[in-house]
Amino acid sequence: MHPLQCVLQAQRWGPLASVSWLLFRTCRAQSSVHGTTCPGPGRQQENGVQKDFSSRLAAGPTFQHFLRSALDPQEKPDVEDPPPYLTVDELSGRQRKVYLETYGCQMNVNDTEIAWSVLQKSGYLRTRNLQEADVILLVTCSIREKAEQTIWNRLHQLKALKTKRLRSRVPLRIGILGCMAERLKEEILNREKMVDILAGPDAYRDLPRLLAVAESGQQAANVLLSLDETYADVMPVQTSPSATSAFVSIMRGCDNMCSYCIVPFTRGRERSRPVASILEEVRKLSEQGLKEVTLLGQNVNSFRDSSEVQFNNAVSANLSRGFSTNYKPKQGGLRFAHLLDHVSRVDPEMRIRFTSPHPKDFPDEVLQLIHERDNICKQIHLPAQSGSSRVLEAMRRGYSREAYVELVHHIRESIPGVSLSSDFIAGFCGETEEDHLQTVSLLREVQYNMGFLFAYSMRQKTRAYHRLKDDVPEEVKLRRLEELITVFREEATKANMASVGCTQLVLVEGHSKRSATDLCGRNDGNLKVIFPNVEMEDVSNSGVRVRAQPGDYVLVKITSTSSQTLKGHVLCRTTLKDSSAYC
C-alpha cells in the first residue's frame, strides 16, 4: 500500500464534512491497513509500546463511530470521549512546553492565539525559550514562494536541535501549522522526515490528538478544510501580556477566487462567526484593558452572519458602484455594517480597525458609520493590486481602474481626512511596461499613506497557474517592484506632510526601538508616531503631571514626517472622548 496509511477520525465540531484525515507515515510499504508500523524518525520505540498502540489503532474507529460523531452539534455531549486508539492521559499535554513561531499575516497571529488556547486547555505550557521546548510549532504562510522558503530554512535550523536532543528528555516534536501545511500536505512529511505533525487552518482543535499520535513515533496530519469552522467558541489567548491591542477574527476563508491568490485553497470557503460570539470576545478584551481591536478576515467587509434565522431573508448588501463578484450574490444574514455598529458600541474608549477588506464591499452605510463614530479609525485598506484595467481583469478583481478611482474619491468625500493604504503586485502574468506605468500613475494619483508591494509569485492550484503564463522575467519583476516602492515612498511622504503642524491622537505602544528616550504609538491612520518620553499634563486630572504608559491616549503635535513615520512633541494625556475637542 501507499506509505501514507490513512485512518479516519470524526471530529466533534462538525458533520461528516468535517471528518479529518489522520495520516500515518510508515517506513516501508505494508500489505495490510492494520499491519504493524515502525517508529518515526529520530526516536526508537520500545516493542511493547509500539505494539500496544498498533493494536489499539487496529481496533477502531468503525463506520458506526463516524455516524455517532456526525450527530447534530446540539445532540452531542459536552465532554467528548477520546478516540478509540488514544487514552485520556495520552491526549493531555502533561505540562510539556510549547514554543510557537508565527510567520505571515495578522490572521496567522490570531491563529497562533487560537492554537495556544486549545493546547493550554489540554495541559500544555508555553515557553519563549526554544532550547527548553518539547514541542515547536511553526504557524506558516503560503502567499508567496519566499514565505515558504523561509520555513524550509527554519526547519533545517531546527533539525540540529532535534538530532542533538538528550535521550533523558522527552523527544522533541515539530509541527507545521497553517497555510503551508494546507497547501503542501504530505509533501512536507515526505521532504522533511523531522516534521511530526501537520495541521491546516481548520484543524487547530485537533492539535492535542495529533501530538498524542506523534508520541507513538508516527507522523500525523489533519489538513481538511471545513465549511463551518470559525472557532467561535475558542477564546484566543493573547501571546503578549503587555499588548495594548488585539486581533479578533470575524470570518475565515474567501470566495473571491482572484486568479493569483492561493487563499481560497489554503483557508477554504467564506464563513462568518456569529455576531454574538464576536461581541463577547470584544467585551472580554475591553475588560482586560485593551484599547484597540482589529477585526480580521480574508475579505472582512463581506461578513455575513447567517446563524440568526430571522435575518436570513434580509436583502443582500449593495456592492460598490462599478464592481462585480465572481460568485452569485449572497442573500440574508447580518452584514458588516451591523457588526461594526455593535462592536463600536462595546467600549467608546476602544479603537476599532478592520482588515483586509475588498474594494467591492463598501456600501454607503459602512462609510457613514466610519465617519460618525469617533472610535472607528478613519483608515481604510483598499487593495488595488494593479493600476491597469487589463491586468485587473486577468486578476479577476471585479473592477476597472476607473471604478477603483471613483471609489477612492467617494471614500474621501464621505470620510474627510481618511488615511488610505493598499496592496500592489508587480509583474503579474502578461503585465506589459504600459500596464506597469499605469500602476505607477495610480500610486501618484491616489497618494496612499501606507502600502504593501510585492513581486508576483505564481502559486499552484490558482487559476493563474492553470490558465495564464508567468511570462514576466524575474529581473523585470524586481525592477518594476523597486520603481513602485520608490514612487510609493515619494507620494506617501507628500501625503504625510499634511500632518505637520497638526495635533493627533496617539495610542501609546511602548518605547521606541531606536531610542530609549522616546516612546512610540500609532495614530488614527495607523502610522507610527515617535515622541519624547517626558512628563505631561493629564487632562482627566487637572494639575497632575504624568508620563505616558502603554495603553494611554496622548495628544502629539506633529513636527516632521517620512513615508513611514511621524515625529512630534507630546502635549498631554487624554481620553478618546476628550480628544475630539483638540483633533
Structural class, from helix and strand content? Answer: alpha/beta
| Unreliable runs | 1-46, 72-78
Number of helices: 18
Q: Name the average pLDDT.
A: 87
Helix content: 25-40%
Q: What is the terminal separation in angstroms?
A: 70 Å
For the biggest β-sheet, the strand order reads: 4-3-5-6-7-8
The biggest beta sheet is recorded as: 6 strands, parallel
Outline type:
globular
Overall number of strands: 25
Domain MTTase N-terminal: 96-216
EC number: 2.8.4.3
InterPro entries: Elp3/MiaA/NifB-like_rSAM, Methylthiotransferase, Methylthiotransferase_CS, Methylthiotransferase_N, Methylthiotransferase_N_sf, MiaB_methiolase, rSAM, rSAM_horseshoe
Enzyme class: transferase
Overview of this structure, please?
The chain contains 18 helices and 25 strands. The protein is an alpha/beta fold.
How are the SSEs placed, and which strands pair?
Elements: E1 4-9, E2 20-25, H1 47-58, H2 63-69, H3 88-91, E3 97-102, H4 106-121, E4 125-126, E5 135-140, H5 145-163, E6 173-178, H6 179-184, H7 186-191, E7 197-199, H8 207-214, E8 220-222, E9 245-249, E10 251-252, H9 263-267, E11 271-272, H10 275-287, E12 292-296, E13 304-305, E14 334-335, H11 336-346, E15 351-355, H12 364-372, E16 379-381, H13 389-395, H14 401-414, E17 419-426, H15 433-446, E18 450-455, H16 463-467, H17 474-497, E19 503-511, E20 518-522, E21 528-532, E22 536-538, E23 541-546, E24 553-561, E25 565-574, H18 576-579
Parallel strand pairs: 3-4, 3-5, 5-6, 6-7, 7-8, 9-12, 12-15, 16-17, 17-18, 21-25, 22-25
Antiparallel strand pairs: 1-2, 10-11, 13-14, 19-20, 19-24, 20-21, 22-23, 24-25
